[in-house]
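User: Thanks for the earlier help. One more: Alpha-ketoglutarate-dependent sulfonate dioxygenase. Can you show the sequence and predicted structure together?

Assistant: Of course, both are below.
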Amino acid sequence: MANLEARKHISPDSGFPIALHPNFNPKIKNHVPPDPVREEFQPPKDRASFADPEKKSLLSVAKRTDLTESIGTVLENVQLSQLNEKQLDELALLVTERGVVYFRDQDLTTEGQVKLFEHYGTLDKHPAQKDVKHVIIQGSREDHREINKYTPWPSGDFHADTSFEVNPPSYSLLRMEEHPEVGGDTAWVSQYGLYDSLSPAMQKFVEGLHAIHTSRLQYDTILDLWGTGPNRPPIDTHHPAVRTHPVTGLKALNVNGGFVTGFAELKKFESDKLLDFFQYHIHSADDHYVRWKWAVGSVAMWDNRAVVHRVIPGTYEGNRRGIRTTVFGEKPYFDPQSESRKQRTGRIKKEKEGLNGSAPNGTNGTETPA
């Protein structure tokens, strides 16, 4: 495992060394978390598995706009609060395929958001949150400056929500209640695309590794900066560095800069260098990247098994406050027989060409007469 202490003095936003405040000490001393470490469990079957592949019920009422070829879709002319169960299942399927789906001008309340997300499974509880049903995401210019100066806050970098859990979240939904006019955007990167972008040799190598996801940095920051006691002890969990998505069946990279500290099969020096590579790989993936400008009433729903995300660094005027709900997913696994998105696209193209009887040079599989 990469040395955690070595990351203590590194800004998660810039990677440059920072100096801790001389009087920087945990606000809570000798904290004993009230809840035990979570054990693995089997969540309900993913609601996307019940959806119509063509999503006719949802797309008959919503206007769909894909923001990039790889990731990100906006749905317009629809209120999440009005969707029926069939449409919610189709929304989940769309999210598994596109990574993240956005909505504007939503009338959801916190109660309605919680009820909506209970359709997708058992609600997760963030290690720092008091309410089991949702977590408040908030910040200000002053908060951002303090985090950058004094903490190793892992969510400052690309991450999947609480990926250190034995059963990490599948879906997350964030609804913005308060937001500045400029700044505070969020970016997402496709983990399908990140895997596809690797060379075949690197893909094969990484498929044999397990990434070490830790909650220790987050645990320390909750004590140091938030002045609240985490609900559970810090943990380190080994998950496949490449995972198979249970709904799409696609391979996705399962490494992120926020919570991954090393690889179980490698020496520390090797782990550190490979993490450096993946940091560059994630941050330079412009063709698999999407950025969302928030406004009050905006909503994003994403699949933590298919994307990583981060708030864009910077300072902004005013406050930023949102309500996030998540649901438990399955324990990550890797199926060697699964395929990548690029492989599936190529296979489907060949199958269609075969059905159409097409062949190179328009010969339809026959030789050109002499």
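User: Great, one quick takeaway?

Assistant: Confidence is low (pLDDT under 50) at residues 1-24, 140-152, 359-370.
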